[in-house]
Structures are given as structure tokens and as C-alpha cells.
Design brief:
By secondary structure, the protein is mainly α. Helices cover 82% and strands 0% of the residues.
Length: 125
């Protein structure tokens, strides 16, 4: 249900857009910095590591929302309010991306653990 809401809000498209921006930035910089953005391997440790990174990233973006939100209402200049609103919206979408990915990772972990518990049943499919 929550994933459907995120899809309706365009979170998946925004996620793809952010990934493209990140890849261009890494290319421009000359080195990738993707340890906490992409799943490196499908081992349980790799998936769990990515899950912890997603939670950390969500907290960072939530902090960005909380810091910029007062500026949307309290800044004296309209251009500052608009800029702060854009930052708030970006950070909100990033939090939703993290949550969207956490849901997907939980499903993946559940499937892996089920497969580990019942290997005969999983292999017979």
C-alpha cells in the first residue's frame, strides 16, 4: 500500500533522476562514492549493510527538512523562502526514496530468510 502511494507521488521517477545525477557527479569527480546508495552484493550482510545506510541517509535528509522548514515560513525574502521550500521538498522526496527502498529491501530479506529456512520448498519451484 505504501509503495503504491510513493509511486503515485512519483518517488520512483525521482529516484531514477537522482541516480542519474549521482552518476554524472561521480563521473565529473572522477571517482564513485556509492557505498551507501547501491546494493553491492546480494548476500544477507550486503543487504543488511545497505538497509543500515538507508536508515542513516533518511535521518540525514529528515534533519535537512527540519533545518530548512522554518526558513520557508520565517525568511523575510521571497527568494529565500522559495529556495528553502525547494530544499525541503528535495529532502522530503529523499526520505520517501529511502523508505521506498527499505520496503523493497525488507521484502528481499524476508524472501532470503524464507529460502534459508525452507531450502527444499524454495528449490522445488
Amino acid at each position: 500500500m505504501e509503495q503504491k502511494l510513493y509511486r503515485l507521488l512519483g518517488v520512483n521517477q525521482y529516484r531514477k533522476f537522482i541516480i542519474q545525477i549521482k552518476k554524472k557527479y561521480d563521473q565529473w569527480r572522477g571517482k564513485p562514492d556509492t557505498d551507501n546508495y547501491f546494493l553491492k552484493d546480494y548476500s544477507e550482510e550486503g543487504i543488511t549493510f545497505l538497509k543500515s545506510q538507508l536508515i542513516k541517509n533518511a535521518k540525514t535528509h529528515l534533519f535537512g527538512v527540519l533545518v530548512c522548514l522554518p526558513a520557508v515560513f520565517l525568511a523575510g525574502r521571497p527568494w529565500i523562502q522559495i529556495f528553502a521550500l525547494l530544499i525541503v521538498l528535495h529532502n522530503l522526496y529523499c526520505v520517501m526514496i529511502q523508505r521506498y527502498n527499505l520496503i523493497r529491501i525488507d521484502v528481499l530479506l524476508t524472501k532470503r530468510r524464507r529460502k534459508k529456512e525452507f531450502p527444499v520448498i524454495a528449490d522445488s519451484k
